[in-house]
Amino acid sequence: MILPINTYSDEVLHQKAKPLKGVDADISSLIDSMFESMENASGIGLAAPQVGCSIRLLVLDVSCMKSYEDVPPMVVINPNVLAVRGKNLMEEGCLSVPGVQGDVLRPSEITLKYRDRNFQEHTEEFSGMLARVLQHEIDHLNGTLFVDRMEKRDRRRIQQELDDIAAGLVPADYPIARECSRGGEGPACM
Does 128 reside within a domain? Predict the structure, then answer.
């Protein structure tokens, strides 16, 4: 099922998400819907708060990118960044901030502890675009958007666009939610 994407001003995007204690049928269904929603919106990553569920869950699929064709789609639950290395400035965008891009400085490599769809624990190192996408999506789980990480002068430059998104004036090629009625607590989110 394609889920609507919450946007910039929606409260659920500015809250720290709650950890998951396991994967049941509802969470498994949510994961499937998140992948479907991400693909429908031509995204490469999607965090549960973006679909109105304040839980520490994200999905990503970077296989559409030339250097990452062999990287399988990932489900990341309860991620914890253990170490970071290097720095890289790169332009980012976000399904929750449609039509806006901006430069964000992030570590170029991370060591990540997380659980997969089967709730099996992993500790892995990631670099390049995969590290960036993971950090971007993990930020969503911590109530942070990429625009919050932009330099202040760059943020001021896009403020009108952010105001337009908050006012519901920016169209997208995918379903957009107005403030999530579930508040991140509905049955699909548990």
Answer: yes
Binning pLDDT at 50, 70 and 90, where does residue 183 land? very low
Domain-embedded: residue 4:
no
Q: Catalytic residue numbers?
A: 137
Write down the pTM of the prediction.
Answer: 0.93
Annotated binding-site residue? 14: no
Say which residues have a Cβ less than 8 Å from residue 77's Cβ, sequence separation at least 6.
20, 23, 56, 57, 114, 115, 116, 117, 119
Residue 122 counted as an annotated binding residue: no
Distance of CA 37 to the CA centre of its chain: 12
H helix intervals, 41-189: 128-141, 152-166
| Mean pLDDT on 153-161 | 94
Spatial separation of the C-alpha atoms in residues 31 and 116, rounded to whole Å: 11
- The reply to whether 167 falls in a domain is yes
CATH number at residue 124: 3.90.45.10
If one counts the domains in the chain, the total is: 1
Strands 45-47 and 57-60, sheet pairing: antiparallel
